[in-house]
Amino acid sequence: MWLARKLVSVKKNSLNAAGIQVALIVTFFLTACSPENRVRTAHITTVLGDKINLNCSANHLSEEIIMIKWSRSTGTTSEDIVSYGNHGKLHWFLKDDRLTISSSDGTVLQIQPVNLTDEGNYTCEISAFRGVFRGHFFLFIIVPPVVMVNVTILPNGHKKLKCIASKGKPAATIAWKENIVGNSTEILIDNNNGIVTVESQLITAINITEEEQICFVKHPAFNEMQNHTISIGMSTDKTRSISLQLIYTLITCASAIALGMFLLMICIIKKKSAVPAIITENTQMINLPLPHSGRRKQLRMVKDPIYQNTYHMKRYQHSG
Question: How far apart are CA 196 and CA 163, in angstroms?
């Protein structure tokens, strides 16, 4: 009899303990799921310049919402954005035309277009008859890089290929086609605010003008990996420099030849139009014997005081 009573007592204690455990579990779930303790966290990524909607709906009916308030924290700055009451009154703390409320109950905050300064943590707080609901949004903004490619001929005949992903966030990833021989290096330039420029250089000894190279650029802002073809031909800065130098040399030579021809023509014209000498008192007579003849040649030297030139006039006389 005593043993039976003991077993009944133990059984009752076990049932009581199980009941307490069930009650604790139910209480925990009810507390966790109650509106005043529910917290929603979301990580949102968008591209610079796009439109984004932050939805703070907590399955509350519009008539249950007493007030909703939006605030944000960007960097070291925390500020209230807007508050909206069930009476329909909207009060803006932050003056920015890009920020709007796109729902009738104030639960959706829209940003269009998104700027880099909008990155940060956003909080909405809904006060309703059933309690308080808070939602947190971590907004991350990516910036697509600007991709540029070029090729330069080095003094040793090698070629330096550049593939540049400029001002992207986060940093882009650059790779080269595998079937080419060369040494590649990568340079990272921090432009502040998380914006990074990536420059990948490939030096190769290829001398075939028809050869092409491809650089692959990968970035979260791109739907797929981008391929950029570089033509290793005559369209280089070095080639353009040589072409300009050759043109300059040809122009200089042509100018020198034209000037020389012009001066030669002036000399010929001047020689043909020379004025005959006039005999003056400065004339001197010189008698010179002629070889194999009994005659003498008389040479008259005339000095022109104006042109400072000497003209020769010949006169022949018979000897006595």
Answer: 14
- What pTM was estimated for this model as a whole? 0.58
Averaged pLDDT, groups of 10, the chain, 320 residues long: 49 51 40 50 94 84 83 90 86 93 89 94 91 92 94 84 94 83 80 90 68 88 91 54 62 85 83 57 52 53 48 44
Q: Which CATH class name applies to 34-142?
A: mainly beta
CATH fold of 146-233 reads Immunoglobulin-like (2.60.40)
